Amino acid sequence: MNKDLEEVALQFRKLPGIGVKSARRLAYFMLERPQEEVDLFLDTIRHARSRVCYCSTCCNLATSDPCDICSDDRRDHSIICVVEQPQDVTAMEQSQEYHGLYHVLHGVLSPLDGIGPEQLKIKELLKRLEKNDVKEVIIATDPDTEGEATAYYLSRLIKPSGIKVTRIGRGIPAGGAVGYTDGITLAGAVENRKEI
C-alpha cells in the first residue's frame, strides 16, 4: 500500500469507531475525490474548529459563551441534565421532551482507564449547583458499568445539598421484543415500570 495512503488511513483511525478497514476505505475515498471537494472538506473542518469553544456554564461545545441553551430564558433553569458527552445533548434535544439546562461531564468515571473525578467536569457542576437555584439534577449517563458508577458518585455528592437527584429511565426500546432483550435492560425495565 502507498505510504501516503497509509498516513491518511492512520489519521482516520484516530476517529472513534473507525477500524483499519474503514480507515482505509475512507482514505481511498478522500484521495479519489476531486481536489476542490477535499479542499472544501478540510476548510469546513478548519472553519468549524476555529469557531467552536466550550460553554463556560455547561461545558458543552458551542459557538458562543454562554451557549444558546444556557442563555435561553425560555428554558427551565431549575433543572440540569447531566450527560457524558456533547453528542448526548444533541440526542436529548432531538427528543423535544426536555426543556431544562445541561451539564456535560466529558466522560465517565473509569479507574481502569485512569479517569477519576478530576478528569471530568464534576467540579464545574458542583460550582453551578452552589450558585444557582437548581431544584433537580437528572443524571443521564449511559446504563453501563461506568455510567452507573458515575451516576452513583454524583448522587452521593449532590444529595446532601437538598437538591433532588433523578436518573433517566431505562427499559426496552420502542419496537424491541422482550424475548430478545438482554437481562440488564430487562432488569431496568422492571425496576422503572409505571402504572397504566
UniProtKB/TrEMBL annotation:
Source domain of life: Bacteria
Pfam families referenced in this protein's UniProt entry, alphabetically: RecR_C, RecR_HhH, RecR_ZnF, Toprim_4
Gene Ontology BP, a term: DNA repair
InterPro entries hit by this protein: DNA_Rcmb_RecR, Rcmb_RecR, Rcmb_RecR_Znf, TOPRIM_dom, TOPRIM_RecR
Function description: May play a role in DNA repair. It seems to be involved in an RecBC-independent recombinational process of DNA repair. It may act with RecF and RecO.
HAMAP family: RecR (MF_00017)
Protein name, entry field: Recombination protein RecR
